[in-house]
Structures are given as C-alpha cells and as structure tokens.
Specification:
Layout: H1 24-28, E1 42-50, H2 54-65, E2 70-73, E3 89-90, H3 98-105, H4 107-130, E4 138-144, H5 148-164, E5 170-173, H6 175-182, E6 190-198, H7 201-214, E7 218-220, E8 225-228, E9 233-236, E10 241-249, H8 260-263, E11 267-276, E12 291-294, E13 301-304, E14 310-317, H9 326-337, E15 346-356, E16 363-368, E17 371-375, H10 381-396, H11 401-407, H12 417-436
Parallel strand pairs: 1-2, 1-10, 2-7, 4-12, 10-17
Antiparallel strand pairs: 3-6, 4-6, 5-6, 8-9, 9-10, 11-14, 11-15, 12-13, 13-14, 16-17
Helix pairs in contact: 2-7, 2-10, 3-4, 4-10
C-alpha cells in the first residue's frame, strides 16, 4: 500500500494524521481498484452517497447493481475513516443487550432488532461470497467480565438469548477456561459466542468498494462534502457541486458541517488501536478464540490476525487533543490485560473516529425529502453498517419496510447545544471511565 492519502480535513475533531494509511490493515490489504480523482465542477447523479465506508459502499453497490447512476464521495481515501481503522470484531446484536432493548423499546421491536442483526450476519456472508471478498473472517468471540458482578450480567444475557431468542452458539467459560481461551487471567470468566467473530475490516471495505465501482458507481476520493442542501445539491470542498435526486449521508463520525440536525445527534469520539509483531504461539494469546472484548464502559477489544499478531484496541478520547504517542497510550491497557506483552514490539499504532449517539442506537431515517442518513453506529458498525447500507439503498428503490424499524429508534440530540455538548460528553464519559477502574 504505497498510495499517499489525499488531504482530509473532514472534521475539526479528527487530527489530519488520523487519516494517514498507517494502520496494520493498510499494510496487510491490497487495494483492488485504481486511484481516483477529486470531484471538481458541476454534475448530476441519481444518488449521491457521502462517505465510502461500510454503509456508503454497501448502499452504492446495491444502487449501482439496480442501474442507478451513483456518485460515491470520500473525504480522504477509502479506508481513512472508521471502516478501515476499527477493531474488526463482528459482534452479535446491538450496542445494548436484549434486556435493555426490551425494557425501553418493547419486546416486539427488541425481537425485530435481533432479527435484523442476525440478518446482517447472513448478509455479510452472502455479500462476501457473491463478490469474492476474502477478508480473513473467523468465528468465536469472547465477552469477558472484568468484575464478578458483570459475569452474572453476562450469564443473565446468555440465558435470555437462549430462552427467548433461540440463540444457542454460546459457551460459558469459567475463570480458568476464559484464561485458557484468551491467554490472560485478569478476567472473572466470560461467554464465547460462536455466531460472532472477527474480520480484517479494510479487506472487507476494499471488496465492497471494488464491487460498487465494477457495478458502475463513480468513486471520487479527496472529495469532502461540506453541505447537502434542501434542494439535494451537494457541495464539495475545493469547488464543485452535484445535483441529485436523492442523497445518502453515510459518513458516521466524519459528517461535521454537512447537516446540522444530524450533527446534533451523531458525534465523533477518538478510538485507538495497535498491532503487535507476530506472537509466539507458545504464549497462548487467543489460543481458544478469534477475538474478544470486555465489559468495561471504555471497552478493551482485541483479535488474533491471520498471521498471528494481536490487534488490540483500548482507550478513547472525547476531545480533539489526541495522544501524540498512540502506541504508548494503548500500551497501558494492553499491559494490564496481557502483562506478558508489556514489552512486546508494536509494529503499528493508529487512531480513528467513530460516531456515537446519546442512546448508542444508530440514526437511520429520512431527515427531509430525498435526504436519508445512516450513522452513529457506536462501535457496532462492522456487522450492522453493511446491511443497513444495503437496506438504505433498497428503501430508495421502493422497499422501505426494512428501514421502518430503525427509523423508530430513539436518537435525541446531545444535551448542551453545539457549544456545550463537547464538555458535557467529556464529563459523562470520564465518569464512566472512572467507574471502570473500581473493583
């Protein structure tokens, strides 16, 4: 991967260096489509898709296959945003467990959301097979309890899924079994979900974008949308406009300035990841599973790559002041989870922004005639975003039923308005991060 990244001032919250192709994913993946030119001048399209991540690429693919003229705009280069920089875990369900969803949304909608997430698994398998996308997918994901009381919560969640949702690819791990599966004894047990797993996310994204381009979508990198007007005219930084029949806002945490109502509900936070050198199998790191995440509010998440590395994510930032040394920032959490790796060589360290909402439920709906949004995946986008992008496209093609459910999800604005929402978010997140440190 030798291409340089186009300038990507897509968010004042995200440092420019966060858009550089410095992740291990970029070193591992081969880009299967040609370099593109930024959008310049005036033009027209049936649909403009803003953001070439999982959501936007999937929407563009579905629309192009249906014969629509699609322009796919990417502020930087494909993979510069969250879809190319995340932890690569394919998690079951949503950001909240089913008991939480039942209590707040009712059992009927909670069950429908579970079906949606299971359909998303089938969609991921189908789309990768249909388009020949090899993304190093593996099953087996452990949810590890960092406190004894949270092991009881995991037990209750598993019991509910088995009893009410007929979901059975779950294996309980006591403390010793969890330590054997993960290669660390710091957790109090966990559950392995063999219906979930991990993937190389950039390979998945490259495959989706390549398929969309092959189907006829017009990809333009280095083309940051700065406005999507009520007349469905998209303005691009550096000069240029596109008039469209329909516009899809799929930039997640990178939509700053594009649409004020969306921005009030979807905010970016910084998340940070490292990759180690290939590890000696004798260390037993993730010997019994493909990946894991723990029960901390600021979650630690990690996967074993196809070449034996540990990709580990841990630590968040809620302001534009990101760490100067991301490797050192993440190593603190890595060393707490895997003390035997305290001095391991880190070959790559990177950061990225993900979009969150106040309820940690995604914002997927029509926001005005001809303009739809799907953003705010809150850490669950690897599974949900590709399927939601496809459903978004199908809604434009006349199959709106799939989006009715997501459109009912409660996603209020962040409190505090534009000026106070950042300090209020930082205070709230810092409180929960402090709770993570309690015994």
């Amino acid at each position: 991967m030798t291409q340089s990244a186009p300038a990507n001032p897509s968010s004042a919250h995200v440092p420019a260096r966060a858009s550089a192709p410095d992740s291990w994913y970029h070193a591992d993946a081969v880009r299967p489509f040609a370099a593109t030119q930024p959008w310049r001048g005036e033009g027209r399209a049936d649909v403009v898709v803003i953001g070439a991540g999982f959501t936007g690429a999937s929407a563009a693919l579905e629309l192009a296959l249906a014969g629509r003229d699609v322009v796919l705009l990417e502020a930087g280069m494909v993979g510069a945003g969250a879809s190319g920089r995340n932890g690569g875990l394919v998690c079951s369900g949503w950001r909240h467990d089913q008991a939480w969803l039942e209590a707040r949304l009712g059992p009927e909608d909670a069950r429908a959301l579970w079906r949606f997430s299971e359909d998303a698994k089938r969609h991921l398998a189908d789309v990768t097979a249909r388009h020949g996308i090899e993304a190093d997918r593996a099953t087996g994901l452990v949810y590890a309890a960092h406190r004894p009381a949270l092991m009881a919560a995991l037990d209750a969640d598993a019991a509910l899924l088995q009893a009410r949702y007929d979901y059975h690819p779950l294996v309980r791990l006591d403390r010793e079994a969890c330590a054997a599966a993960l290669g660390t004894g710091v957790y109090h047990g966990g559950w392995r979900d063999d219906g979930a797993g991990r993937i190389q996310p950039l390979k998945l994204l490259y495959g989706l974008v390549a398929a969309a381009v092959q189907a006829g979508a017009r990809l333009h990198e280095g083309s940051r949308a700065v406005a999507a007007g009520p007349d469905r005219i998209v303005t691009v930084a550096g000069g240029g406009t596109i008039r469209a029949d329909q516009v899809l806002l799929c930039g997640d945490g990178y939509l700053e300035g594009v649409d004020a109502p969306v921005e009030r509900r979807v905010m970016p936070i910084g998340s940070f990841v490292v990759a180690t050198e290939p590890l000696d199998p004798a260390l037993g790191i993730l010997a019994g599973t493909a990946g894991a995440m723990d029960t901390r509010f600021v979650v630690n998440y990690f996967q074993r790559t196809a070449d034996g590395r540990l990709v580990f994510g841990g630590g968040e930032k809620y302001t534009p002041s990101w760490p100067d040394d991301i490797g050192a920032f993440v190593r603190r959490n890595l060393s707490r989870v895997f003390p035997q790796l305290a001095d391991v060589r880190l070959t790559h360290a990177w950061g990225g922004a993900l979009g969150i909402t106040p309820t940690r439920l995604p914002l997927v709906r029509t926001i005005r005639p001809g303009v739809l949004v799907a953003a705010g995946w809150s850490g669950q986008g690897v599974l949900l975003a590709p399927y939601a992008g496809t459903m978004l496209a199908r809604a434009l093609l006349g199959e709106a039923a799939g989006l009715d459910l997501l459109g009912r999800l409660p996603v209020p604005p962040f409190p505090g308005g534009r000026l106070l929402r950042w300090p209020l978010l930082t205070a709230a997140m810092s409180y929960y991060a402090l709770r993570d440190k309690l015994p």
